[in-house]
Amino acid sequence: MKVDIISRIKKVLQDEGLRFTKQRKAVWNELENSNDHHDADKIYENIKLKKVSVSRATVYRTLDVLAKNKFIRKLDVGDGRIRYEAKTSKDHHDHMICLDTGKIIEFFDEDLENLQDKIAKKHGYKVIRHTHQLFVKPIKK
Amino acid sequence: MKVDIISRIKKVLQDEGLRFTKQRKAVWNELENSNDHHDADKIYENIKLKKVSVSRATVYRTLDVLAKNKFIRKLDVGDGRIRYEAKTSKDHHDHMICLDTGKIIEFFDEDLENLQDKIAKKHGYKVIRHTHQLFVKPIKK
DNA sequence: GTTGTTGCAAATACTTTGCAACTAT
DNA sequence: ATAGTTGCAAAGTATTTGCAACAAC
Question: Measured CA to C1', what is the nucleotide nearest A21?
Answer without folding.
Answer: D5
